[in-house]
Structure formats: C-alpha cells, structure tokens
Amino acid sequence: MLPSRLRLLQIALIVLVAFQHSLPVHGFAPSHQHPTRTHSLSAESNTEAIPTELNLFSPCKINLFLRILRKRPDNFHDLASLFQAVGFGDTLHLSLAPSDADADEFTCNMEGVPVDSTNLVLRALELMRQRTGKEVYFQADLVKRVPAQAGLGGGSANAATAMWGANELMGRPAGLEELIEWSAELGSDITFFLSRGTAYCTGRGEIMTPIDPPLPAGSKLSIVKPDLGLSTPKVFSALDYDQLSKEDPEMLLNTFLKEGVVNTDDKYYINDLEQPAFDCLPELKALKEELLEVKGFDHVMMSGSGTSIFCIGEPEDKEGFMREFDDREGISVFNAEFISREQGCWFKSP
After folding, report:
1. Is 203 left (phi over 0), alpha (psi -120 to 50) or beta?
2. CA 151 to CA 149: how far, in whole Å?
3. What family does the database annotate (predicted)?
4. Quick one: CA torsion of 280, 336, 211, 57, rounded to 10 degrees?
5. Whether residue 239 sits in one domain with residue 204
6. DSSP state, 338?
7. How high does pLDDT run on average in the chain?
C-alpha cells in the first residue's frame, strides 16, 4: 500500500506543476515574474526594458509620380502619389525629461528652424501626450540636414519620427494603426513615414495605402537642391489646371509596381507641380534640363512641390558630376538610395 500512496502523491505533484505552467502569462504570473507584453508593432513578444533615450534616423522622401486631381471645397487639393523613402535625412536625439519636468526641451542645429510650439516635433510630442493620456515630457535635439522647401518631406518625417520615438519611450501605449490615425492631425505627408518605406498616398496625402513588400532598397539616386525655396502655397497658387496630366494614377501605380523604378518609361514620371514651380522659378526648369543631359541617370524629376530634383541611377562620371553641380555655388548634391524598414523597427540610416 505504501508504494501506491507514494505513487499517487507523485502524480498529484506532477499535475499541480503542469497546471501552474500551463496558465497564460497575462492570466497569472508569480510575483517575481513579469507578464509578456505583445504589441501590434511587432509580431514578437516584447520583453526588453523600456528605453530612456533613442537616436533615430529621420529619412526624407521623393514622389515617383504626383498627380493633382482636383481642388476641394476646403481649398486643399486631392492628390495621388507614389511615395518612396530615401536614405538622406536628419537625426532626432530623444530622451525622457526628468520626472519633475513640466515641458519639453527642444533644440535644433539649423538656423531658422523654429524651436517653439510651432515646430512639428514639439507638436508631435504634445499630440502623443493628449492621445495616450501619459504626462511624459521629453528632451529632443534635432540634427537637420534636409533643407527647407525642398519637396522632400523633412519636417513631416521629423514629426513621424518623434511620434514613433515617444511611443517607444512611453512603453508603447499605442499601436501602429493608432499612430497612423493620429498623425493625420499634424499634416498631410506625416502618415507616409509610418509606412515601411513605399506607399500610395491619396486625399491630401494623409490616406496611405502601404506597398508591402516595399520597392527594393538600394536603388541609387542623387538629389540636387538649389539654394532656392518655394512655399507649397505659392506653387499651388500658380497651378494651371488645364495643364494637369490626364493619366489615371491607378494606372501609374500599377506600371511602377510591374515595371520597376528603372524600367518604367519616362512618360510615367509625372509631377503636376513641375509646371507651377517652373513658372515661379525658370532657373529650376533650366537645372532639370541640365541634369537630363548627364549620362547614367535613368530618370530626372522634381520632387513634391520643389525645389529638389532627384535623379534615378548613377552618373557615369561621378567625380565630374560632383564638380559640375555640387561644387557650383548655390547648389548642393545629396547622394542616397531607396530604403525601407523592417516590421516593428524604425528606419536605419544606410
């Protein structure tokens, strides 16, 4: 009888241990363990400690095509555009402020960039507090390289980067879908930078259809930026609606995705804002015509509302190209490539 009783006790202990280990971690956890926290930004469980500071790359974008469809009753315009992230951008240093802080601290290296509440980085941080209900403040230092009024979405990228970073430092209270929804409150292009790097954007630019997988990373390009600025309102005010392209944007999108960036015919590289921008700045049109003569570039077009012109490919004579354009007074050249980000991670500088 004694062996039988011992055997029963052994079985009972085995069942008890098995029962404890089978309980879901969010339903029960011993006091010395922490529940595993899953998050929609990543398919994997996140057991890492919440960071207190981040250094984040803030990429810029180009518009592989940009169609202006119509003027809306609110005086904005409906557009359709294929956006692509590129590996030229800024760096945002973001950290938690001391626990007794009651305001964000913000600095920027570029002269002329506002450091008050009008800056999109500070507006993004405030939006995150409002939407999450977390009274957390930050110290932010923005190291800018992307020039203003370039058509590259530098400020929009800064805002999206700040939202992502704040969410990480807060412990990820928001999912990616929420960040995308909230970002539309700050501006038209911000939503794009929460994609993986390629997206078809409509509405004012805030309605994003991600392209997954994104266009292949690594495609080379040069961004040529004259020291000339054009505000987006000024460009739109010069828009001649009779000169808008008639091409169906869905057809343009399908062509780019089917043929690829290099093999897509030049006639599909359409930017409806080139006409008003070139009317405002004829020297910008002259610069594009010069770049079209450079051997090695597959496609040349202005990005967004200007004034940057991107050149897909690589010049045959790289040194000669840089001497001719980057060394010229009043012009800067930034060599870059297409980039994308991994699911659940932020963009990395190539």
Report:
1. left
2. 6
3. Belongs to the GHMP kinase family. IspE subfamily.
4. -100
5. no
6. B
7. 88
Calpha distance 148→306 (Å, rounded): 10
Kindly state whether residues 105 and 73 are assigned to the same domain: yes
How crowded is residue 310: how many other Cβ atoms within 10 Å of its Cβ? 27
Please report whether residue 40 resides in a domain: no
H or E element that contains 16: helix 2-22
What is the number of domains present in the chain?
2
Domain boundary among 186, 210, 234: 210
Domain of 228 in residue numbering reads as 220-337
**315 occurs within a structural domain:** yes
Model pLDDT for residues 161-206, shown as the tens digit of each residue: 999 999 999 999 999 999 999 999 998 899 999 999 999 999 999 8
Asked whether residue 240 falls in the same domain as residue 320, the answer is yes
Give residues with Cβ within 8 angstroms of 93, minimum separation 6: 53, 54, 55, 140, 141, 142, 143
**pLDDT (tens digit per residue) in 64-102:** 999 999 999 998 899 999 999 999 999 999 999 999 999
